[in-house]
Amino acid sequence: MKYSSDIEVNRFAEDLLLSVKQMKARKAERRTFVIPVVETRNKTGLTQEKFAQLLGVSVKTLAAWEQGVRTPSGAARTLLKIAEKYPKIVKEAASA
Question: In 1-96, where does DSSP find H-type helix?
Answer without folding.
Answer: 4-24, 37-44, 48-55, 59-66, 74-85, 87-95
